[in-house]
Amino acid sequence: MNISGDELEVVIERKKIKNIYFRINENRQIYVTCPRLVRDKEIYKLLADNKKSLEKMYKKVLNDNAKFAKVMLLGKELEYVYSKKIAFKDRTAYGPSIEAINLYLERKSLKVFQDRLNIIADTFNNLPKFRLRIRKMKSRWGVCNRGSMTVTLNSLLIHKRVFLIDYVIVHELSHWSHMDHSAAFWREVEAHFPEYKKARKELRD
C-alpha cells in the first residue's frame, strides 16, 4: 500500500478478537490484527478510508527511526566514535555501533530514573512502598501497577530530557492516589509538575 510515496507491506494477523486494529511498525509494515472471519477486501477498504491516519503514523515511525540514528543521552546528542568497547568521554560516545550504545544506555537507565524518583517522591505524601522497574515499551512511557506494587518506566526515556523523565515519574506517582485520568488526577499532577501540558505535548511529538 502506498503511504506518503512509499510502498508499505500489509501484514494481516487474524485472532479471536472483536475489533480491527492497525499500526505501522518499526520495519515500516502496516500491521493489521482482526477477527478471523474478516475478509482482505474489508481490511484494505478500512486502510484506504484511514489513509490520513496511516500517513501520520508513518511520519512518526520515520521520525523515531531518525532519532535512533544518533546517540541521545538525557536529551543531548553525543558524538559517535567507533570502538570495540562502549565508553563515554567529553560528550563523545565510543562503541561498536550507535544501536549498541543506545541499548547500553537503556539497560543502565534504572539508576538515573531511581535518582530522579527519589527526589520527586519527597514532594508526595503517603506514597506506598513500591519498586521501580524499567522495560522497553512501545505505547507507554510509564505504568503504575497496584497489583505488583511497582512503577515501571520505559527505558527509552533515557534518551529524553530530564524535564520529561520527571513528568512521567510525577504522572505515575500521582496514580497511587488516583488510578484513573480524572480531573482530580490532573490536579495532582499539576500540583507537582505545573508544566505537565508542555511535557505531554513534547512526548507525543
- Low-pLDDT runs of 5+ residues are none
Distance between the termini: 25 Å
Structural class: alpha/beta
Counting H and I runs of at least 4 residues, what is the number of helices? Answer: 7
Helix percentage: 40-55%
How many individual β-strands? 12
Apparent shape: globular
Radius of gyration: 20 Å
Order of strands side by side in the largest beta sheet? 6-7-9-8
SSE string: EEEEEHHEEEEHHEEEHHH
Beta-strand level of the residues, as a percent range?
25-35%
Assembly type: single chain
Characterize the largest beta sheet: strand count, sense, and whether it forms a barrel. 4 strands, mixed
Mean pLDDT rating: 91
Descriptive report:
This protein has 205 residues and is of the alpha/beta class. 40% of the residues lie in helices and 26% in strands. It is built from seven helices and twelve strands. The chain has helices spanning 40-49, 51-67, 98-107, 109-121, 162-174, 183-192, 196-204, and strands at residues 2-3, 6-7, 9-15, 21-24, 29-35, 71-73, 76-82, 87-89, 92-95, 131-135, 142-145, 150-154. A hairpin with a 4-residue loop joins strand 11 and strand 12. Helix 4 (109-121) crosses helix 5 (162-174) and helix 5 (162-174) crosses helix 6 (183-192). The radius of gyration is 20 Å and the shape is globular. The two termini are 25 Å apart.
